[in-house]
Design brief:
single chain; about 300 residues; alpha+beta; Immunoglobulin-like; 2 domains; 5-stranded antiparallel sheet; 5-stranded mixed sheet; 6 helices; about 25% helix; ATPase activator activity; Na/K_ATPase_sub_beta
Length: about 300
């Protein structure tokens, strides 16, 4: 068989690449668009419409079942059934003020209110925003769930039925230096830091100390401890101590109560000027493990820097 060879002696007679692409997009001879005629496009459109309708319906159905059977007032798995129980149900500590969640530095010049770098008012406003958001007035429909509780007592039975012990920061700390009227100490060399325990459903402090959870703050290193001139703790009812703060056991357990207000303490620090001091605070009770310093279980850390410099 003789193979014929076509030779184009003129570029004008060579087929153009663009003509092939154009014919693929629309073939007028076979009336095809992108290689399919009208019937083929209709069939594939119908197939994918039915396919994605069924897929979407299946997803919505599963989501509806999930929402229908998932409890809205408590975690699905609690206690030993929770993944938290693998390493022990271990609440963590938190602190305020915290301008950014990734920033643990509190740096102020007590004589500068609005300085962009060292102004103390931004920390005062951060504390006020937190307190207003988390400790505002209890809604009227839940005021009946607030009960008066005695210190060092357990009210677990009442809390199982939606009750919560009263905790009003303005009343608890009105006789301390850590008040809004005193700018929480940020206009002095001795600022107050709010230290709180993160809420964990059903957690109850157990073992020593038997009246709740002690909170201890100190310098992170020996140098920090040397630079830290003094620490004072203010707990409920304005109780002042130089040894530790106390989160009273009457506030536990948290059972998702609408009227619940998590307790906290104020810690006032006395640090030297122009010296960075790293602080770590620990929750001290038998059933909170604070040995894991890498993950800060049962702990929180922040740094204080008080200066007479300006931006």
């Amino acid at each position: 068989m003789v193979q014929e060879e076509y030779v184009f002696d003129d570029h004008q007679h060579q087929p153009k690449k663009s003509s092939g692409i154009g014919k693929f997009i629309w073939n007028s001879e076979n009336r095809e668009f992108l290689g399919r005629d009208g019937a083929s496009w209709g069939k594939i459109t119908l197939f994918y419409t039915i396919f994605y309708t069924c897929l979407g319906s299946f997803f919505i159905g599963l989501l509806a079942l999930f929402i229908r059977f998932m409890p809205v007032d408590r975690p699905t798995y609690i206690g030993v059934d929770s993944t938290m129980s693998v390493r022990g149900i271990n609440p963590g500590l938190g602190f305020r003020p915290q301008i950014d969640v990734e920033d643990h530095l509190i740096s102020i010049n007590p004589t500068l209110a609005e300085d962009s770098k060292y102004g103390f008012l931004k920390y005062v406003r951060n504390l006020e925003n937190f307190l207003n958001a988390k400790y505002g007035p209890v809604p009227d429909e839940f005021k009946g769930d607030v009960i008066q509780c005695n210190a060092n007592s357990s009210y677990a039975n009442e809390m199982n039925y939606g009750k919560a012990c009263e905790f009003e920061p303005e009343k608890e700390f009105k006789n301390t230096p850590c008040t809004k009227e005193n700018s929480y100490g940020y206009n002095t060399n001795q600022p107050c830091v709010l230290v709180k325990l993160n809420k964990v459903y059903t957690y109850v402090p157990d073992g020593y100390p038997y009246n709740g959870i002690n909170v201890n703050c100190s310098g992170e290193t020996s140098a920090d401890r040397d630079n830290l001139k003094g620490v004072r703790y203010y707990s409920i009812d304005g109780q002042e101590s130089t040894v530790h703060g106390l989160l009273d056991k009457k506030f536990f357990p948290y059972m998702g109560q609408k009227a619940y207000r998590a307790p906290f303490i104020w810690v006032k620090f006395d640090v030297p000027l122009n010296t960075l001091v790293n602080i770590e605070c620990r929750a001290d009770v038998k059933n909170i493990d604070t040995a894991d310093r890498m993950n800060r279980r049962g702990q929180t850390k922040f740094s204080l820097y008080i200066t007479n410099k300006s931006n």
